[in-house]
Amino acid sequence: MSRRSTPPRGSRLPRSLVPLAGESLVGYVLRSAHRLDLTPLQFCQASGLAANRPDFVNGRKLLQLSDAELERFMTVTQLNESEVENLTLSPWKDAYPSIGLSLAGRWDKWIFHITPRFCPQCLTGNSTEMQRQLGGARMKYWHLPVAFACIEHNCILSDQCPRESFHARRSALSDSLIWNPNSLVAHPSQCRISTDISHRRSADRLCRTYLKAAEYSHVDKPDAEIINCQKRILNVLHGNITHEEFNITDLRLTAALITASWPKSSDFVKANLRYAVDAHVESLALRYPKSYRKESPIDSPPTTPIRSAALLSTADAILNSTEVYDLVNFMFQAAYPDREKNDATWAHNVNLQSITCSKKFKKISAPIMEYFNTVGMTSTRDVRDRRRLHSYNFAPCSIPSFLEPGWWDKHFSSVPTRNLRTARRLAAIKLVQLSMGGAQNEAAAYLDIPYKPAGRSQFRAWSESEYIFANSVRRLALELEESSSLIDYRKRRIALQDWAIDTDSWNYLLDSLSSSSSGQNPMLDNNKRQAVSMYIWTLVTNGEYIFAPAPLRALQSEIPDKLFYNRVYDYYRRLIRSSGGHYGQLRILLAPITRTLAQLIDEGEQVPDAGLYRLIRTNVRDG
User: pLDDT grade, residue 366 (50/70/90)?
Assistant: First the structure.
């Protein structure tokens, strides 16, 4: 097959092609070179894409052309700047994070394939004269690891020639934009892989098999989930949907978690696709035999289209599931059963890619990151990234200083605890942290409760699993975000910070009380008055009685603190535990006071210093 001499550099080519919709730089070069009877290398040299190397065109040209290369390519091909840029991946730098990272100098493994992928029907082209001569478009998205299906022809992409078994080892030319670029073939859709890479003139040993639809009648037909996943990926790349609606980083991280937890995650993969994920995991084990799950290879992209289809469509299904939080947590615990910090590579990957994750995924992974980021993150950037993961849209004032019993029973029943009071207190602190950020001591101060630096070690002592606890906190946080009827507990705490039941109201209660069933008159001194005030305070603010204000302490300054609080706490415990007798009657009388105080504060009214009993009588009569 004869070839023309290389055209002078920088001169316009005699015939120029208009790029096809979605075509890549590789496809345009192959079709243009074939039309001009040039080798791809000659075309690249004439258009400024290649130096004088006989067998190589830098594959990174597909990513972006330099200003000089862009100008020269425009001149030679007579294309405008937009047409040339659209042949490269650079327009997708915002939609596909790996492209943006690679353009910034941080080369990412999810940017290119080792081998190209293609749709045989697309390469065959349509019935137009030009496509009959030159074939169809080699689509730009085929070069990305997230390409696995052709939505136009409803088929899984191929990455193999029908004569694959005769090919030489592929990796030798994997960095080249086009394989064997200095060889002529009869048609752009012919296979350019050499059957003997050791041969002195590899051009004489090219495969040259036509990669046309007729040769691929066996191509797998994808199901609707695979096609829909590929459609969403393309919509993101083309800017038709937002990153919050569908996020490629979320997909990538979920795929890595499936890999890390395999085979326990196999139940989430369709039965007819499990072999593909299994092959992907086995290939990683062969390439990284030493505990590959502890290293970055779990984030390696699948090397074949069917593996990509199986892994990414499963990840997409998990992210769209109503049980996504349970599924992600199950896979994480399966991958890292001991949850040792140096063994949680997936959590490290989330940290590295947190900037491009969706808000939803940050919340999904937040319990894991809470556990693994608490220790060992000292740099300013790490702390900033961690705080970015902890963002919830509920007001911290809606958190009581002592977690509501209903909230605890609903979300924390599975948490093994040795000290319920400590657990409920810490849960409140964590929720405030999620809402307003900051450290635990700042959250405790916001809740008006003391905080000791040793609190975290105490927490480890009472909880069998801090991770389960963190996950429960996140579940409650998500529920609070959706709630429209939250109480402003901080407003109540501020209104009652120096409050005690006034003398007139106390006397009203005394007059209303009958003698106990034993016929004895119970003690009704200021100690009990303080205990009653403490009881009302805990009900209104949902706080712990030990942190309740004690303004009546000043009236008994002659009594030691220990004796005073022992008496007050004893009265309080009797009050909350007794269902009948004197204390039972007292609790019935205190119910309207509690309702009245809560209503006054929530409506923004001033809490009266005296005369509360008048409102009490009104509420009792109305109730």
Answer: confident
Tell me which of 171, 194, 216 is where a domain ends. 216
pTM of this prediction?
0.70
For residue 287, give every residue at least 6 positions away whose Cβ sits within 8 Å of its Cβ, in sequence order, or none: 297
Burial class (CB in 10 A: 0-12, 13-18, 19+), 441: middle
Nearest to 356 by CA among 264, 272, 253, 433: 253
Report how far residue 382's alpha carbon sits from residue 388's, in angstroms, rounded to the nearest whole number: 10
Contacts of 70 (CB under 8 A, 6+ apart): 81, 84, 85
Does one domain contain both 578 and 548?
Answer: yes
- List, as one string, the DSSP characters of 387-426: HHH----S-GGGS-SS--HHHHHHHSTTS-BS-HHHHHHH
**pLDDT (tens digit per residue) in 505-535:** 888 777 777 544 444 556 678 888 899 999 9
- Please indicate, yes or no, whether residues 212 and 238 belong to a single structural domain of this protein: no
**Within this chain, do residues 362 and 423 fall inside the same structural domain, yes or no?**
no
Which helix or strand (DSSP H or E) is residue 224 part of? helix 224-237
CB 151 within 8 A of CB 230: yes
Containing structural domain, residue 295: 224-389
